[in-house]
Amino acid sequence: MTLWLVMLVAMLAILSPMMWLRPSRRDRRLGQLREHARKAGVTVKFGKPPLHHPPAGLVSYRWLYSQDGPGPYFVLVREEYASDMLKPVAEDRKEWRWRIEPLRPFSEKVRDDLEQMLEKLPEDALVLESERRYLTLWWGESQSAEVFDTTHTALVAMCEALGKQGEDSATAENRPY
Questions:
Q1: Contact in structure between 25 and 32 (CB atoms under 8 Å)
Q2: Could you report the per-residue pLDDT of 120-140, keeping only the tens digit for each?
Q3: What residues does 138 pair with on adjacent strands?
Q4: Residue 44: strand pairing partners
Q5: Edge-to-edge strand order for the sheet containing 74-78?
Q6: Lowest mean pLDDT among 37-51, 56-70, 82-96, 126-140
Q7: For the whole model, what pTM was predicted?
Q8: 65 pLDDT higher than 80
């Protein structure tokens, strides 16, 4: 009897670390979400978001601009994490503020598209950053892979609109006067 008890304790001691290594439900959901995003052409990066005191767990998802039209440089921050001194994106909608405004103002259509796209972002999306090659969303990954498609579609359309805005300004710069 003692032998069986010792063997049972030994087996439990061997199996218990393997149970700790098993991914949780949340880990499996995040893995599925990240894999779904990668298949859709989105780059998932881990790093420090452009916030002074970012909450833990923010991950960046990057959408690539077309090489024909590079993106403008700007940083938008959600109201809760922005200073009151920062200018709101729109006077009637103050959920997002410009931390860094683009050098050239957007066309009316692009500005409207941007405001509509910001409304479609999940609540845990805290920073939207644009640079020459990427449009980056910093968020807490609250959505499932299926719901992510709505966000993905909105950000792909925004990349196209911002890239065309960059094409138009680049063409205007290269015109002989």
A1: no
A2: 899 999 999 999 999 999 999
A3: 60, 127
A4: 61
A5: 43-45, 59-64, 134-139, 125-130, 74-78, 96-100
A6: 82-96
A7: 0.80
A8: yes
Distance, in Å, from the CA atom of 140 to the CA atom of 123, rounded to the nearest integer, reads 9
**Rounded Cα distance, 79 and 72, in Å:** 22
Tokens of 123: 């609540």
- Main-chain dihedrals φ then ψ at residue 167, nearest 5 degrees: -60, -45
Q: Quick one: tokens of 2?
A: 């003692």
Residue with tokens 């609250």: 142
Percent of the chain with pLDDT over 70: 93
Task: Print burial letters for 35-52: b (CB count within 10 Å at least 16), e (below 16).
Answer: ebbeeeebeeeeeebbbe
Q: CA nearest 83: which of 53, 55, 48, 49? A: 53
Question: How is residue 35 written in tokens?
Answer: 């894999």
Strands (DSSP E) contained in the chain are 43-45, 59-64, 74-78, 96-100, 125-130, 134-139
Query: Cα Rg for the chain, rounded, in angstroms?
Result: 22
Q: Kindly tell me if the per-residue pLDDT of 97 is higher than 80.
A: yes
On whether the CB atoms of residues 134 and 71 are closer than 8 A, the answer is yes
- 8 Å CB contact between 16 and 36: no
- Amino acid 164 reads K
